[in-house]
Specification:
GO terms for molecular function: 5S rRNA binding; structural constituent of ribosome. Belongs to the universal ribosomal protein uL18 family. This is Large ribosomal subunit protein uL18. By secondary structure, the chain is an alpha+beta fold. The protein has a single domain (2-108), classed as 2-Layer Sandwich (Nucleotidyltransferase, domain 5), CATH 3.30.420. It has helices spanning 4-17, 64-81, 99-109; strands at residues 28-33, 38-44, 49-55, 88-90. A 4-stranded mixed beta sheet has the order 3-2-1-4.
């Protein structure tokens, strides 16, 4: 059983995904955040493959926003190693605020363009 909050996020997610698609030149940087962790993936939607991923699992104890920034830098580093320079940002139905914004800023700081 899903809650109204989750249903609302899923509706927003589908509305965003109508316009945001990852290609080989500009893959999609997708964000998922749970209450404790944050995850990021660089995805090529044409082939359905994940090119790079990072998460806050196993990181040392620090504030969640700092964790999100580190995950952004880490996913940017892995994406650049995979040959990706620019991405399309998919906030996955979350507001562009707080941890999601910190992850995006960390990815920009790591060298990704979006």
């Amino acid at each position: 059983m899903t809650t109204k909050k989750v249903e609302r996020r899923i509706k927003i997610k589908f509305r965003i995904r109508k316009n945001v698609n990852g290609t080989a030149e500009r893959p999609r940087l997708s964000v998922f955040r749970s209450n404790k962790q944050i995850y990021a993936q660089v995805i090529n939607d044409l082939t359905g493959t994940t090119l790079a991923s990072a998460s806050s699992l196993g990181m040392e104890k620090m504030p969640k926003q700092e964790q999100a920034q580190k995950v952004g830098e880490l996913v940017a580093e892995k994406a650049k190693a995979a040959g990706v320079e620019s991405v399309v940002f998919d906030r996955n139905g979350y507001l562009y605020h707080g941890r999601v914004k910190e992850l995006a800023d960390g990815a920009r700081k790591g060298g990704l363009k979006f």
